[in-house]
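By way of example, what follows is a protein record of this kind.
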Amino acid sequence: MAMMMMKTVTMQRRASSAAIVSIARSHGAAASLGTPAPAGCTTLASFLSAFPNHKPHLAFYSAISSKFKSSSEKALKFQPELRNDINNVNSLDDALSLFERMVRMRPLPSVIQFNQLLTCIVKMKNHYSSVISLFRDMSAKGIPIDDYTLTLVINCYCVVGRVDLAFSTLSGFFKRGFVPNVVTFGTLLKGLFREHKVPEAQELFKKIIKEKLCKPNETMLGIVIDGLCKAGNTQTAIEFLRAMEKRGSPCKPTAIIYNTVIDSLCKDKMVDEALALLQEMIEKDIPPNVVTYNCLIHGLCNLSRWKDVDKLFAEMKVHNIVPDVFTFNIVVDALCKEGHIEDAEEVVHIMVQQGQNPDLVTYSSLMDGYCLQRRIDDASRVFNTMVASGLHPISMAMVF
């Protein structure tokens, strides 16, 4: 029985491996991790320096950092000085200097320790290309890497706009006997959407489901829904949403996923369809939250459907959902743009009564509203109130 189970697992892994290689090839990825630099880039350094800078996506790292946290603590226990050095890295220069020391150590530090250093660099701003460079250096020197390392590098390639090289790195999983997980595939999906390769992202997601390359979770579904909505494919996003609701689906939609679709529908002025999704959430025991109602209220305000806005506020009260500063700002801004400045002032009064302090957006909307009516004295009064509350304009554009 045990032999049969091992044989089955081996066959599944081979099938999965073939599927991944097929995916990598279909995206024009090179067959090896040593992908040559593009024409005009004579060295790895010049190749990597051409990459654009991006803000770090810390959610990605929190998702995968738990995978090796306990192992990291165990490994570092035997090298406390190295643990302290990694914890004390405050700049890229510190990290590069420590990396050079680590590669000269004998015995070499564990892959977990190298991963921790790479993660430290990634969490700094605008150093994704440096992580890629160090990874290639590790590969050239024969320093062990694992699935965490590969996923980290895949994310870096995706963030700098080289999803093709991310897929090339994907092929390295099976060459090393690793199996990509849901975080790896989620990262690739996000990379495809970031580069506006929507059809390719859809195809990859379908392949993941059909060939069971990994077990999708709510985060992966959220990436797909968000990517489709941002690309203007709201109806396709709804189709994916419906597919995930079917019995036997590996993951179920959450309020966050519904909110993404509702917001997209409202931006497309399909507010009635968005309201229908709200009722669907309630019927399916998926509790809406303040973000859900903010999206809907914004959509209704843009269409001047004030009675429906009142109904949503009443519904929020029934569900014990407290309006936040964004809720009030949406209403204040819409009223001001329509010339209902006194009503907007009343909303601000209610806002303060409910413990929400007006912010720069609130005051800016009021000043704009008064200026539209050429009531400069009232606009000045609002400005003085704002400054007296401790808020200051972030640009001269706010000072009329």
